Amino acid sequence: MLLSFPAASPAFSVPERLVFDLTWTGVKAGTAVLEVVDEKETVRVISTANSARWVSLFYLVDDRVETVLTRGKSAIFIGQPRSYRLKIREGRHRRDKEIIFDQVRHTALFIDHLGKDSDRKEHPVHENVFDPLSVLYYVRTMKLEVGKSAYVDIFDSKKLWNVEIQVLRKEKISTILGEVNAIVIKPLMKSEGIFNRKGEVLIWLTDDPKRIPVRMQTKVAVGAVTATLVGGIY
Question: pTM here?
């Protein structure tokens, strides 16, 4: 069962394109893009991350995550997940998995494209379930109160996860938009998604109706990777 604060109207624009510099220990290590594309009856959300040339020489990153939402099928959001595909290449690590949602039968078919042919299994889900990418956009529409946690249900990797979103604090930070008031949230992710890491993840959202993610940070084995908004259409 989905537990959360009440959702408002969509906080983000459609279309929307957010471009981020990825830095590691203060050095630019790559570029990431979050994009929302209007396809009339559906909305496509695309996340890409690519390592800089100098990083690719010893640790290539080539990630693409895509989700398709069916418009008008959700009472709490812009749309319901119809499909989700994650293809990542990070050094020697590779993943290619897909989820196909059936919102009539309330099932999710998980497919591991790099696994055995038999690695396809259907799982029961309920109506208000998100995938690891679309959930970021749903969180942007939620009423977030410092000191309180929200909970959202995410299906990924053959499991239904009830994920806690901690609302830590508000603070002023300097961004490409100028100095802005930001809400800092900490999703306790338990599966692969926009951040394929088990370390701490922090996201800075503008404290205004658009809730633009202006900074994201995840801890890695050595240091942290920070995504800083540097441009786009919003």
Answer: 0.90
